[in-house]
Amino acid sequence: MSFVGSTRASDPRGSFAQVRKSILQRSIAMLTPQDVVTIKPNQTEPLKRLYNKAAVVPMFGQINIEELLAKSYMALGLKDPTNNIVGVIVVNTYPNIKALPLWEWKSWIRDIYGMEDSCSRNTLWVHLLMYDSMYSLFFLKPLVDYIFQQRVFLQYLILVQPPGKYRTDILSDLGTVVTPKEETSKNAQRLYVFNREDFIQKYKIRRAVEEDNDDLVPLINTHSLRLEEMYGRYYIAEILTRYKDSGRQIIVAEHEGNAVAVLCLNESVCYKVLNEEFELACYNGLKKPHPDDLADVSLEAIFHSLENLHSKYEDEILEIIERTTNAEGQNSTSELDETLIHVDYSESDSFSLVFTSASLLFFQDDETKSRHNSTESVESSKEVLKNYMLSAEKDPRLNEDAMSAYSSVRGMYGHIPEFHGDPNAFCLEITAAYPDHEVGLMQLFEAAFETFPDREYCIMAVPSTTPINRLTKFFTRVVPRSTGVFPYELYALHKSAVLGHVRVVAGSSKHIPAVKRLISTIPNNSFVLQEFEKSIKDPATPYLPFVFLCEEQVIGLAILSEETDLLYLQAHYDLSYINTRVHRSDSYGVIETLLINPIFQRHSKLFLSELHTLGDFSVLFYRHTPYDTTDAYRERPLMNLLQFMLPLAPRRLPDYDMDLLLQEECAPSKLIVEDQEPFALYLSTVPNCSVNRHAVNTRIVVVGCSNTALSFLETLLCKQDPNDMVTFNNVTLICASGMAASKVGSRIRDAFLIKKYFMDPRHMDMISLKTYVNVISGKVSKIDKKNQILVINNNSFISYDMLFLMTENSFFNQSGRTELHSWRSQITSSSSTMLSKPTMLL
Fold this sequence. Notes:
842 residues, alpha+beta, Aminopeptidase, 6 domains, seven-stranded mixed β-sheet, 29 helices, 32 strands, CFAP61, CFAP61_N, Cilia- and flagella-associated protein 61 N-terminal domain-containing protein
């Protein structure tokens, strides 16, 4: 017996099992938020493998995994040391209670459970939990930790526990059970609440002292050694002791007695330089409001000025019109020109009056024939016809006279305004944190505004090549002026964007005055105001109005409608990212208008997510027409959230023989093959609202407008991974003729000419490269590689970080061209046997 017992004790299989169990227990204990990965909407296999009907249905009910992933806000998986998914959590912006409308949960949780401070900004809801049974007690904490680290404003993660008995040990002691206020039954529906305070490390926020030098200098050195090389090892202590009156403030986040994050702030800001280099009008020049500030640039003021100008020079304008008409009557055989009348009063006023070009109107056949009667020779007739055809092909939107005249009208928007108020900003000079303590930066930014209580903006300037993805959660990029040469990127953070309470509500009549004030300084605001008022006052309108509020002040608006032309979109655009099988036919919406104050752009994804929820649209489209980027013909303001939406690539349809297909009774619908006005299509889905978007400020300059250059830009900017999106903020194209196509589309011309490329005007309008690219019309005169500068037209320059030369033959070396032709002629003249015609060897 002892022998047998000893043999069993020394069994290598038993020892191996014990060692394996010990290793597994240690690996389970080592699971951290770094092991969390994002599950894409098309990655259903890990969920199907972990699906256990007996554990899932009692808690979450019957689920469709494909539909759940396609409509969820965030889906996360936990990997074990062998890279297998062992735990899954799926969260959304509303509770998984089918009897509760998506937009009513805030009043429901307030009235039933008494959670007054729960809102869409600080609350997410668990819709699914699945796990490997071996990891059932350990998988949840790393997932919840990761969610709180990624969402800096998230306060509550809530799981709805339906009445009944089911396994709750997987929840461990990570959260708190909240029962209904007036319910005493143990079987009542309860909420299991995960609170941020239980998962995020606690920090003590305070001003830095001299003794912190030993902690802060090594911390800053993990990011850059330059400060220590320039100022020595004790520069923090010297700032705090020797230069107390320099206007600097240093605040730190302390954890377990050590400074783990730091902000160095300075009240000194060069407002004049920043106002000259950046578009600061929407930030009031980073200054306090002042009566002398130029603020009245509304369209009403412009129209009033134009009316005064017209009445002032009415007699002179009528005289010019009469004189022009008489001249046309006397010279009936003159060459056909556009009827453009331009009156310049630049000496007395900055406005010009431009009458609409006659080429934009349609003429009757009789009128057209009468204008082409001529008794000249055949050659002259051919010349007139040639000129007429060329003028008809030219896009009227690119008329140089009209554009130059219109530019003088819009001069009010082109000048640099002056602001006379008191300083209202402080700058961020140093920010640093250890990787495990970056969440402490949020508390530091909140404390920064308490350090300067009389100022509302925190700004920072960073080099274009510096990655700042973690700071884009807090700051908004300020748009540079087209003529600016500032070497750094400017970012701004407003006090209300950090400390204010933001939310989205349905628009009502009480919001109309605030909306008028919001859009009063925006060009083409009349269209937006009319649509907003109509959507509120007209009960039969298809539009749904929404407003964005911060402390009950209107900071933005949106107008939605239902998408009714889905077949056309599916035929002409690549919608493969959308799983149409899981979306209802009425769940596709259109963003007609969306505007938001740039100060609050950091909350853009929150606003888009709320539009999905409140509008009950799982998919939202936005049509960007060519006229949206043309000042002279723009009817609505530009949407300033395009960078958070996904551009969809256009599809090329085959040329159908409709007569033949109709005979075979298999012709496609007219809704599919009809030619609509081209537009660029953008997409927003609920999962898209949680994707972290990376900002790249590297100055990319492309020289040349060849097919290669345009294809490169399209691939770089328009063809992105929906789950890892990138925004390129500094892309410039330099071309002598610019990017705009000079001819309007013509099916007859395109049918006769051979196409060597796909970049026709229609395709250009359907990808809208102008939305992403700054276009400079000019020729490169010199390239200074040492200083990374391009000289354009011998009188201007532009800096670059990355340069791409795609000029085809524009800068081809002539000597090299001669050698190439000589080499080709030698090959052609040499005797050879074509591979397509082999000879038989005997």
